[in-house]
Design goal:
This is Sensor-like histidine kinase SenX3. This protein is of the alpha+beta class and 399 residues long. It is 43% helix and 20% strand. The protein folds into 2 domains: 164 residues, GAF domain (Beta-Lactamase), CATH 3.30.450.40; 156 residues, Histidine kinase-like ATPase, C-terminal domain (Heat Shock Protein 90), CATH 3.30.565.10. The strands form 3 sheets. It has a 6-stranded antiparallel beta sheet. The protein has a 5-stranded mixed beta sheet with strand order 8-10-11-13-12. It has a two-stranded antiparallel sheet with strand order 7-9. Helix 2 packs antiparallel against helix 4, helix 4 packs across helix 10 and helix 6 crosses helix 8.
């Protein structure tokens, strides 16, 4: 039965996807093979391999000098040492008690003499395998070669981490596409009914002498038209598999449209929304509109609960290669320990929401994270200078 360390290691290995999918099939596979070639070159040997070791087997996911394969953990040389804190360098494995009877040394599988390996450790410090070089001749590895082998092992983990992040982004985009398709489908029928009722009301003779009501209906019709366009765009987004269409988008226009759609909610809360100068970014106008509307709606909902007039501020700061958009409120904020949880689907923060009986399923911030990721960006929450929460989004520049 696997021990606790093996269970945790198996989960980490599964996240990298190197056993379920052939690494050579993606860009990471070419990078891994390139690192094995470098490792063999710096050690001056013909053979190098990247091993991933689970509770039962050693998986050679990239190799130079021989064909990569799988062997049992019992037969593996690296399984004897990869969980240790240091490199292992052995000039002649026949003279080392750890390896002398190993089938890779005795000739049963191979005739390894020189052996050196550096452990592969995840960013959290968990050992998952090794970068190994070996030869069938006795030899030494100098200090420069040993240091280079260690650095290459770190780069192997960097490639695996990039592979993991890429897979997570792909999965996130697929989920966003499914979510968009379902939401847009669910909205079409009630939206069509709403538009029909508004048209009937606007044509009613009773409103001929009521200019305020006519104006309100006109604004409602405009909002319904914008929502219909949003639904259609979401359907298009779902059809193309969740890929954000990249075009220059004026964030100022996007935010002003979102404020117009939230006009009734903002008035009901008595909130003021102060929008600074906003840039042009690269992105999907429809998705960024949904992002802005969600963030503003949340900010207004959770703004000042002490009876004062709620305040919301929207700002942008230029960063290297992009922009940092922030939406600040003066509400109760989000405790640091909850800031990751509230981005989960169907999650709601404490922010006095449950006590106040606020309705909603908590899908807003989950959607915002998916939209940010679809743009290659990130989203998070900090403390606001206004006293509440500051939700920030990193977006690529439009230039």
């Amino acid at each position: 039965m696997p021990n606790a360390q093996d269970v945790v290691r198996a989960a980490a290995i599964a996240d990298y996807g190197v056993l379920a999918e052939a690494p050579a099939a993606d860009a990471g596979g070419a990078d891994l093979r390139g690192l094995t070639e470098l490792a063999a070159a710096v050690a001056g040997v013909p053979n190098a391999v990247i091993n991933i070791i689970d509770e039962r087997q050693q998986h050679q996911i990239a190799a130079v000098g021989f064909e990569a394969s799988v062997c049992s953990r019992e037969d593996s040389m690296c399984s004897r040492v990869f969980e240790g804190p240091d490199q292992t360098i052995v000039a002649d494995a026949r003279a080392d008690a750890r390896f002398a009877q190993n089938p890779f040394v005795t000739g049963e599988i191979a005739d390894v003499r020189f052996y050196a390996s550096s452990p592969l450790r995840t960013p959290g410090g968990l050992p998952i395998g090794s970068l190994c070089v070996f030869d069938d001749e006795v030899r030494e590895l100098d200090e420069h070669g040993a240091r280079s082998l260690g650095l290459l092992a770190e780069q192997v983990v960097d490639v695996l981490e990039l592979r993991r992040l890429t897979r997570e982004l792909r999965r996130s985009n697929e989920q966003l596409a499914q979510f968009a398709g379902q939401v847009s489908h669910d909205l079409r029928n009630p939206l069509a009914a709403l538009t029909g009722y508004l048209e009937l009301a606007a044509d009613s003779p009773e409103l001929a002498g009521a200019p305020d009501a006519t104006k309100a209906l006109s604004r409602a019709e405009s909002a319904a038209e914008r929502m219909a366009a949003l639904v259609e765009d979401l359907l298009d987004f779902a059809r193309i598999g969740g890929s954000a269409r990249r075009r220059p988008v004026a964030l100022g226009d996007v935010v002003r449209a979102a404020i117009a759609d939230l006009d009734a909610q903002i008035d009901a809360a008595g909130a003021t929304v102060d929008v600074g100068e906003l840039p042009v970014v690269q992105g999907d106008a429809t998705l960024l509109g949904a992002l802005a509307q969600n963030l503003l709606a949340n900010a207004v909902k959770f703004a000042s609960a002490d009876g004062a007039r709620p305040r919301v501020e929207v700002r942008a700061e230029r960063l290297s290669g992009g922009w940092r958009l922030t939406v600040d409120d003066d509400g109760p904020g989000v405790p640091a320990e909850e800031r990751e949880r509230v981005f989960g689907l169907m999650q709601r923060g404490d922010r006095a929401e449950v006590e106040a009986g606020v309705e909603g399923l908590g899908i807003g911030l989950s959607t915002c994270r998916r939209i940010a990721q679809a743009h290659g960006g990130r989203i998070g929450i900090d403390d606001s200078a206004l006293g509440g929460a500051s939700v920030w989004v990193l977006l690529p520049a439009g230039d």
